[in-house]
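Supplementary material to the annual report.
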Amino acid sequence: MTMQQVVKVTVNGVSYERNVEVRLTLADFLRVELGLTGTHVGCEHGVCGACTVLMNGRSVRSCLMLAVQADGAEIMTVEGLADDGRLHPIQQAFMEEHGLQCGFCTPGFLMAVYELLGSNPDPSDEEIRESLGGQICRCTGYQSIMRSVKSAAAKLAGARV
Amino acid sequence: MKAPVFEYAAPQSVEEALSLLGACQGESKIIAGGQSLMPLLNMRLARPDLLVDIGRIAGLDYIRDADGGLAIGAMTRQSDIERSALVAQRQPMLAAGTRFIAHPQIRNRGTIGGSISHADPAAVYPALAVALDMQIEVAGPAGHRSVDAADFFITYLTTALEPDEILVELRLPGFPPRAGWSFKEVSRRHGDFALAGVAATMEVDSSGVCSFARIVLFGVAAVPLRVEAAEQLLLGSKVEQSLFEEAGAMTSDTLDEPLSDIHASADYRRHLAGVLTRRALAEAAGRAA
Amino acid sequence: MAVDIPKSFAGLPATETKWVGRGVNRVEDPGLLTGRTEFVDNLVKPGMVHCAILRSPYAHARVISIDASKAEQLPGVVAVVSGEDARRWSNPAQTMPEGWGCYCLVVDKARFVGEPVAAVAAVNRYVAEDALELIDVEYEPLPVVAEAAAAAEAGGPLIFEDKPSNVMYQRVFNWGDVDAALARADHVFSESFRWHRLGANPMETFGVIAEWNPVDQSAVFQGSFQSQSHMGLGRAAVLGLPSHKVKMISQPHGGSFGGKGGFRGCDIAVLLSRKCGGRPVKYIEDRMEYLLAGASQAWDRHYQASLAVDNDGKVLALDVKLLDDLGATAEGFGAVSAAKPLAAFTGPYAIEVARYDLTLVATNKLPASPYRGMGPPPHNFVIEQLMDIAARELGLDAAEIRRRNYIPPEAFPYTIASGNEYDSGRYEAALDKVLEMSDYAGLRAEQARAREQGRYLGIGIASTIEPGVFDWNAYAIVGLPSTGVPEGVSVGIDILGKIYVKVGFSLEGQGQYTLACQLLADYFGVDISDIAVVYQDSHSAPPHFGPGGSRLGVAMTGAILGAAQLLKEKLIAMAAALMQTDAANLRMLDGMIGIEGVPEAQMHSAQVAATMLARSDLLPPGMDPNPECTYVWTAPGRTPADEEGRAKSYLTAANACHVVCVEVDPDTAMVEILSYYIADDCGTRLNPATVEGMTQGGVAQGVGAALLEEYVYDEEGQLLTSTFMDYLLPTINEVPMTQKAALVTPSPFTPLGAKGVGEGAIHTTPAAIMCAINDALAPLGVRAREVPASPNRLWKLMQEAKAG
Ligand SMILES: Cc1cc2nc3c(=O)[nH]c(=O)nc-3n(C[C@H](O)[C@H](O)[C@H](O)COP(=O)(O)OP(=O)(O)OC[C@H]3O[C@@H](n4cnc5c(N)ncnc54)[C@H](O)[C@@H]3O)c2cc1C
Ligand code: FES
Ligand code: FES
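Predicted assembly:
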């Protein structure tokens, strides 16, 4: 039983170890303890999806997890997508299709799309809606996001062949 | 919106978890997927002294064959249930209903045990627990006990679980091969908690007569609600649209004080319960072989 | 010096435009896509502490005592402030109408649930929230005014005890003789409507880091400010400081939609900073605070309206009576939202006679704030419902009645009854376009077939105006009499030939930095990557306002082209000296400055600029060596309001016509949007991709308004929708993918002929969807008059209709 605990995680391939309060959310851990501020916080109650990251390959709400629950996990955040400034095909697609305006929701969307396209390289409109239904964007009205996901799928398919 | 101070423990075994819960002087809380508890913590609506994380206990996360039915570990993530071939085959309504729970990112964390323990009146799994006759396996200081889903839900967010008990497993019979099922809900947005919902199962004999019916409503009362009057009406009757309509109307009539909130009045919920029942029965009958 | 700004692309010094007018990749995006953009909550400052705010649980209650001693003793707590500190170090907010503001922390009584009562600064937000629980406040609850109608009545509890009533403002504007028109008309259609509170909800809430400098008694605020200079003036007034002692630094923000206001957040944070000796204090509003007490709520309206129509469907007069519930104070510019409809009071229609009977009341709810559209969306909803009611009663098609009433293209510039002037438009062409795109006849046939099968399909048409490029005079009727909202930029070239533009606003989502680059790339014949947009704080930037009122695209274009032109003239003067010719012989094209007709006599503008910087000995007499020019643009031709509130206010009038097809499930009352078509005309499209994005984003917010979003209060003034589980934002599952077509009718008055378009479809979508729902339910004799048309509401209406 403890109020303070050591958390060891790998984020975007880098190992970190921090002694933190057990009540710290994973979102705050990433943003404040690790300085990885690309993951955003929009509601802190699980509805907006801005804080979505991948944990052991699955998209999760980092505001609905304690950092201690992630101990030992592999985390991927938006900072892990681009390679030395070269945009990941999903990011490239969002840029070309204007899949963002203010960009605050975008990191969450990118991570959800990353998971989707990892398991379903050619999703239908319905499947895109299903996997992004919990990600709220107040700016775009989603049409350009829909286009971005399809374009990203095509880019990734192109990269595979 | 930051959680209050609490102590945290991540036991490795159910026994260890039980002893932590038993030893806690103040209020203890189990955290499973955290998808209901974390918002409450962030809002400081839940203020446990001790949080017992059962996520590190090995062997609570499984979907297994059990005598032709299923045994599902309490820590099994909702998305694993959604994707499980075994679930799809043994209990198709469980797989289908799972897709109505929130969104993939939440189902990736949320557990079946957490959802059933939490007992939100509008949640999917509590209704399915009753509709599918789940046995709820509970570990406590005095050993294991098994509770029928029908006896498990007491009222709004309250179950037969004691504070020092842990839900460890759900057991389901196999879905009868010739039975039909239907899971329907109305919600404001896709993925929201239901304003009203129904899980229905039905068996129809070769002469087109209903030989088994189960109707469970959710989102309308403090607990999942079986509509036995309508089930009785169906039993022994020829399945046809007029029967479903009658059963729907009867369902509405049996609800004397449905829940009421800013999204749906009691009257609207009563009405929806009837409409959804009618539609679900028609679909279930259509699916019954 | 006023500069002649080109009214079309042809006026740019470019052989052809390569950037402007095209949907280029945005310069903002790489930073946003990689998570590198610095939103305010990403910033950490040395010594920084974190603020949490204790809020009133009562809608109306006297604060008897506050005891913060236990909180002060909690380890990690650095300072606590309450009303006493606010009274000592600040002033009540200045408001419009005047005198309806209070201190940032309650000094006498709380007037709404969530009103700040005390605040804590601590080492982190967790500890700050722990400390809030240790503050003891004794309240004496007072009777609550929760309803606008009750608030307007005499004799009830007073929200401001120094006022005679809760009526903040009451005035009737007569534009022509409405009573005569109503008496004379063949038909008068009257109806009441209700638009419930909703609001901006950008994905990023408000945030600020405030720093008090005890040595020179000044304050610096770094945060998400939509308009930093405007915000800065307000802070100076509240803190009793001269304007040059308040500096605002605007970080990129995660959306605003008019709602990025954090007046009290700034003021409380700086009081805390002062109390702890000048440490930076970060306040990040959380989502529940935003919903409960942020700049989150707008437009709480009760309408009674009439349309006078002749037998041919020609509208003779529009009579609108509005009771608007502004909440507890006027601190949030709610009154401005009630004034803005004057800019497009009669929509796209030639209605010569109109009346606006306007009452603003105070209740014990959250003070209303701006929201995208700033007031007209509910007004448009009212007009469009009345048009449909008239059409239905007269047996006219919804498209036909609109067609008969549009302002014809030859009538522009056209002055509407309420005084504003529309610049240009082809409303019937937009209608025809959208009818064609939607196969309107086909939709109607489908609707007829569906009805035979007992399905309730409805088709909605809505035509609206989006006033663009606001001027203060638009709000003269509620106390903002001046004209001229400045937007200034400085454009320069560095010694290696790269171009920069200094602006006084930050990223917000509309792609303004990209537009700046597009304009300058074409102006100086360089690649878009050769341009840098440099943000400047409120002390450094030229006079500016920033985004708001669909203005920045146009205003910034004016400022950039003005500054670019001044720079061009300066470079030409320099080149003339270098080439030993008269400046009149030189011109600049694609960035090359040369003597016309002498191809070898050319210098690149970058070379000229570098020479200015490197060889002051070669400068012509009197020229300063800085290849940088500043221009401040304001909308031309704006007029003060007359005695009936009439003014040329908004510079541009974009228009849109939407067709939407919905299906209402008669059993569940759920509404599904089946298809959605848009024809819109915002003049020249400076960046079509951005326009498309603004439109679609407006559709989403319009869907929210029509079907989902509502702040619900109970009779005790308690907010029942303080989470995103209850305040419902549209998701990808609710927003239709729309088909869009563009008409281009340039504005004769604006830079490059562009019109303001930032608010987009929020003006049109709620009206269109409500028209469609009513069209669907017409066979049942149901008329939905309340927004949002939630399933519960629609079901109740259908039940009532069945009961007869
Ligand atoms: C935005 C959002 C939308 C949602 N929408 C829906 C929806 O539409 N339908 C729906 O059904 N659900 C919905 N949910 C709830 C979600 O399904 C949760 O996952 C579920 O209710 C709780 O499961 P959990 O594992 O996350 O439990 P936790 O949050 O960890 O725990 C919930 C409660 O159960 C107790 N508990 C957990 N596990 C056990 C156990 N093994 N033994 C004893 N007690 C235990 C905890 O102490 C706690 O009180 C939504 C959640 C969110 C955040
Ligand atoms: S911040 Fe986590 S879902 Fe909104
Ligand atoms: S781009 Fe602003 S919220 Fe999505």
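The radius of gyration of chain A is 16 Å.
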